[in-house]
Structure of VWA domain-containing protein:
Amino acid sequence: MMRGESLPSAAQPFLGFARLLRHHAFAVAPEQVTSFMQAVTLLGPRSMNDIREAALATLAPPPDRRNEFEAHFRSYFYGDAKPSIAGDEDDETHVKDDRGVREEKNRIARQEKGGELSSALEQLSSRDFQRDRDSLGSFRRRLSSALPARRSFRTARTRSRGTLDLRRSLSEIVSADGDIPSPLLRRRQAVPRKLLLLIDVSGSMKLHTTDYLTLAHAVVQGADRAEVFTFGTRLTRITSALRIRDRRHALARAAALVDDWDGGTRMGPALLAFLSVSRFSAFARGAAVVILSDALERGDHADLETAMRRLSARAFRLSLATPLAGDPRFRPATAALRAILPLLDDLVDGSSVRSLTDFILSLARPAPAAETIWKRVS
């Protein structure tokens, strides 16, 4: 976009409006800004409506964001208070990535009661992690070797059970003046699979959030390739925060990043938002995916079923750890759980750190599908 200081003062407001639109994720190219200013010049303008028509014609807001464009126009040029845009907070799942965050913002923690029930209403709040947890050092040290492995395309030298390393073998033959030494072998390396944690931070999971984030920090510290996201009414990537070695500092940074602590639950839309970002969905390809949630999806669970089906197709192993399974009387009886049960490899107890660490360390061992196990229990 053109530099504001090189423009006449009368043109500054129009450049400022274009910058405002770009700040709110409107696709505005520099050429469009130039055309906007030229259109205003050609029109006079004789009224604010001329400026509005020039903006609509040149900046070309998409039809589904026309009302939002009008609200920004009136707020910027008329000084009106910007009205809330219907549907923005209720229908759209916001995605927040912690990549490139440089500063921590101090937030005041809200003390909220409840968390007993799940809802779809968004409630933004912060969280303070100050309590110490038992050391997860043993889990962290064992994690990398305990994860399921895959065969890499990279190879390493081996003395047995490999394939002929033709290049090195020919080099040895040349070095030995034609003598045929013992054949040299190479074997494809085995590398740990990625581990992806998706953590529910809604109100119904309030009692378990601190334990889950503590476990996630140990996972990021112990695994070579791990990714962690939180979801409630929004989706937030917190992997970079958890790479800080000091646990208290890491959890404080994560607490500052997440805006939707202890709010409602939009599990289906949040997972679809995760899959819609190609860089994020790549994390799930061939990974062991563990979702830490009670899966209490309110209303229609079609989005949840669609998201789980797509995740299942990408992941090496898809698991749901729910604290509800800590109760011996638990059965996957809700409509949402019945719908996604055939798509899960595991439906396990997520009520304690101990049960979760034991399960994660067992991911490399084969197990019957979740549907098979719970049909036996029922």
Confidence is low (pLDDT under 50) at residues 83-90, 100-121.
